[in-house]
Amino acid sequence: MVRAGLTPDRLVRAGAELADEVGFDQVTVSALARRFDVKVASLYSHLRNSRDLKTRIALLALEELADRAADALAGRAGKDALTAFANVYRDYAREHPGRYTAARHPLDPEAAAASAGGRHAQMTRAILRGYDLSEPDETHAVRLLGSVFHGYVSLESAGGFRHSAPDSQESWDRVLDALDALLRAWPRP
Amino acid sequence: MVRAGLTPDRLVRAGAELADEVGFDQVTVSALARRFDVKVASLYSHLRNSRDLKTRIALLALEELADRAADALAGRAGKDALTAFANVYRDYAREHPGRYTAARHPLDPEAAAASAGGRHAQMTRAILRGYDLSEPDETHAVRLLGSVFHGYVSLESAGGFRHSAPDSQESWDRVLDALDALLRAWPRP
DNA sequence: GAACGTACCTAATAGCTTTAGGCAAATTCC
DNA sequence: GGAATTTGCCTAAAGCTATTAGGTACGTTC
Question: Where are the annotated coiled coils located (chains A, B) (predicted)?
């Protein structure tokens, strides 16, 4: 019999594709085995278990997102950087809904520490350097931006804005305008 | 044999409690049957299937949230209303994490139409009446507020702000200050 | 007290997860 | 090049969840 050439990496990548096709929740070890035309038990030499698979897909998604964000930020500052960064999240969620869901998957502390989460936070801080905030306001703003981006993208992809006017794109643009204005005139206590 | 007295309502309520205890994802027809000390098949006279159970828990959570929000808004306006409303979401998520997750569960169009989703949107608009926005800006602001509240609460309960200073409570207060300031000085295009 | 409806049960099928142990292909070593 | 070893994928099996079909006995109604 010809070997399938399974590796943890190929499995995780295929798992990410599967997530985009059928949804992250539907990613199962069984479905992945079917995709490689291999028996289920064979995957357990490469993956600890089902949770391990999902964690690795989450880590992959976080890395991909951070890479895209880093590209988008290169050479930009101020509102330009803010917009480019925000669009990375929104576009990624649209192109890769399963991966985006994976990126929001709760990670245990070790996985979280090894994740690209820190890069995301650092990039957000880099954007805020274009505005005039100092600690602890910068941290509050980091949290606000994370909340808005995640919240908007998640509500939008759940269909929340689909059946009402105006267009979601218009709201997105205006929300980014508003955030820019807010960061320029951040209220001091 | 003594009958257990199952009804759809009791099952859904128990399912909501179960969600808060073990997480919404772990809510299964089997676990619910165990909780009533009844065979699994018995539940299928009261629930269509597992998805039906989860949908009903989601609808329950949305109603509870809307009820709390309506109470909180009574007699308030302006920033006072904004803060009270926002705290309803945050407090509910802390007290009832499983139900809160359920409330964010994707609903099919019929379920969504029958849900308290419309009440939530109307209440958000009521708050914005305390600020000077007119369409389409009011809708953009509705979407922004929904995004921030959902995003913040979801990142916070995923532990996102747990291991860094300053305290999440402080950021929450400052984020609400910032939103209030933003709504009072909403940028026109 | 008989007849009926219904609440819960047994039984069975099917899918996903995970572990244990086996064979054969690939790799290493002489 | 062939033997020894490693390792990749397999079969088998047990346990859990979901769901359906059909049966029994409880509670209600007349």
Answer: none
- Residue B129 dihedral angles phi and psi, to the nearest 5°: -65, -20
Nearest by CB to residue B175, choosing from A136, A143, A189, is: A143
Contact call for residues A66 and A120 (beta carbons, < 8 A): yes
Task: Judge: B187–A181 Cβ closer than 8 Å, yes or no.
Answer: yes
The answer to whether B181 contacts A182, with C-beta atoms less than 8 Å apart, is: yes
Residues in chain B: 189
**B103 and B16 in contact (C-beta within 8 Å)?**
no
CATH of the domain at B72: 1.10.357.10
Q: Nearest nucleotide to B31 by CA–C1' distance?
A: D17
In a domain, A1, yes or no: no
Chain A residues whose CB is inside 8 A of the B148 CB are 144, 147-148, 151
Work out how many domains chain A is built from and give that number.
1
- Please, which residues have CB within 8 angstroms of residue B12's CB and are 6 or more apart in sequence? B53, B56, B57, B60
Residue B39 belongs to a domain? yes
Q: Which residue's CA is nearest to the C1' of nucleotide D17?
A: B30
What are the tens digits of pLDDT across the range B141-155?
999 999 999 999 999
Helices (H), A23-77: 29-35, 50-73
Q: B83 vs A88, A147, B21, B70, B76, CA distance in Å? A: 30, 16, 28, 13, 10
3-class SS of residue B169: helix
Residue B189 maps to a domain: no
In a domain, residue A3? The reply is no
Separation between the CA of A8 and the C1’ of D14 (whole angstroms): 26
In this structure, what token pair is assigned to residue A34? Answer: 């079917």
- pTM over 0.90, yes/no: yes
In which domain, by residue range, is A123 found? 8-184
Give tens-digit pLDDT for A90-120: 999 999 999 999 999 999 999 999 999 999 9
DSSP code of A96?
-
* Å between B74 CA and nearest CA of chain A: 26
